Task: inverse folding
């Protein structure tokens, strides 16, 4: 058995230790074979490591048809990890809309402001990203927090999941989270605050815990403001 002499570019081993590898015997179109660890297969090119530790990029077109199919099947079963630099995240908190509501008798007019976050995702890879999913918890602070003392948290938690559009190569998309209401009240003339009925409670959007996935891979995790991580835990 002769080993293939591969006129291919030798690349650095740095950073490859954490990738999954599988030893396969590969045969080229001239019938020459080599045993190597398959580290990744992407864009019709296999990254392989020989027993001596040397790592090469091997075009699938150099191989016999059976081995080309073998490596394509391997690629489907072992999709490459994207890593934390695949997506750049930018976000801002904003008021998205205001609705006006009146209570019976016109005693109080409530302006309900809808607050949420605007998220911008930039694809920093060389391929389209699909299967993007944002899971997040919005933390809402109330003027009266007595209802939350038994949970150990001073916040009401609102959890959502949003599926985002695909992001083309080196492009960006922007979408909004769900919103939470914050109330402002205008009292009618002659109405005395606290004279009867329930005193309204004002909600304020305090922060967000975001987990951003591509497929099943967690790409970005962001907590804002940072001090939320000291008092809160992610709970499903």
Result:
């Amino acid at each position: 058995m002769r080993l293939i002499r591969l006129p291919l570019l030798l690349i650095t081993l740095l950073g490859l230790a954490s990738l999954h590898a599988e030893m396969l015997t590969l045969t080229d179109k001239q019938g020459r074979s080599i045993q190597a660890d398959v580290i990744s297969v992407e864009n019709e090119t296999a990254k392989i490591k020989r027993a001596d530790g040397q790592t090469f990029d091997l075009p699938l077109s150099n191989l016999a048809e059976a081995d080309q199919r073998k490596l394509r099947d391997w690629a489907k079963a072992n999709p490459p990890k994207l890593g934390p630099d695949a997506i750049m995240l930018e976000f801002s908190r904003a008021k998205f809309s205001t609705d006006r509501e009146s209570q019976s008798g016109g005693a109080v007019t409530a302006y309900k402001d809808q607050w949420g976050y605007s998220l911008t995702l930039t694809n920093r890879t060389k391929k389209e990203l699909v299967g993007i999913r944002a899971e997040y918890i919005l933390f809402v602070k109330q003027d009266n927090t007595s209802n939350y003392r038994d949970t150990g948290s001073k916040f009401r938690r609102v959890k959502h999941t949003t599926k985002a559009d695909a992001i083309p190569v080196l492009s960006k998309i922007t979408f909004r989270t769900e919103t939470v209401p914050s109330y402002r009240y205008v009292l009618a003339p002659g109405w005395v605050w606290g004279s009867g009925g329930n005193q309204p409670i004002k909600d304020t959007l305090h922060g967000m815990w975001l987990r951003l996935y591509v497929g099943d891979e967690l790409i970005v995790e962001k907590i804002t403001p940072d001090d939320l991580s000291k008092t809160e835990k992610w709970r499903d």
Observations:
- The mean pLDDT is 80.
- Residues 22-77 form a domain with the SH3 type barrels. fold (CATH 2.30.30.700).
- Helices lie at 65-77, 228-231.
- The first strand starts at residue 22 and ends at 27.
